[in-house]
Amino acid sequence: MSEETTSKETLIVASKVKAYIKSKGCMTSGDAIEGLNEKIYKLIDEAVERTQANKRSTLRSYDF
């Protein structure tokens, strides 16, 4: 695990994610939430880049 990974704040509500996964008939491993959190950061970073490339400062749903 990199230092960057451990220093990032969790952006999701882990209990809600786990409950949703359980409702689909699956279990959640210990590292699943961390992996999802990293994915969320990547999606946000890409959307911010797209927003800035279009010379905007407001991120919109279609930037995702």
Indicate the topology.
Blueprint: H1 3-7, H2 14-23, H3 32-53
Q: Describe it for me?
A:
This protein has a domain at 28-64. The protein has 3 helices and no strands. It is mostly helical and 64 residues long. The chain has helices spanning 3-7, 14-23, 32-53.
Strand count, sense and barrel status of the largest sheet are: none
Number of helices: 3
Gyration radius, in Å: 15 Å
Query: What's the overall geometry?
Result: elongated
Describe what is shown at a glance.
This protein is mainly α and 64 residues long. The chain has three helices and no strands.
Which key features would you list for this structure?
single chain, 64 residues, mainly alpha, 3 helices, 58% helix, 0% strand
